Amino acid sequence: MTTHVDRKLEELGLSLPEAAAPVAAYVPVVEAGGLLHLSGQLPFKAGQLVTGRLGDGVSLEDGQEAAKLCGLMIVAQVKKYLGGDLSRVKRIVKLGVFVNSAADFTDQPKVANGASELMVALFGDAGKHARSAVGVPVLPLGAAVEVDAIVELA
What we know:
alpha/beta; CATH 3.30.1330.40; five-stranded mixed β-sheet; 9 strands; Endoribo_LPSP/chorism_mut-like
């Protein structure tokens, strides 16, 4: 089944990664009340985790790319959970973006735009969402960025 989102991915020259398996005692997606709650997703590029700290060796542009990679993993998790049918996505409700940040790094919202802009590019107006962007001193496995999401289903 090819959906509008699948076509947009192709137009943008993007592909979804394999939905990552949990690394601890949780599930990637929980459905409740017509909403999907997605656990935090990490950025993988060519099968390798993107690690490091923004403001301390990782550039803003690399952070934005890491956030975009997290966004692609979110879409991959949703697609897997929905049996491939992304047309059931009614709205991206909220993204929570956690940025592995040096103490003086304050551009977390700019990093988060990597994931936010991807959602709008893929889902149009339905991709516009509420968001938080938070700097943290460390993330699991040393990841540069982690993003969780709430998605409304049609």
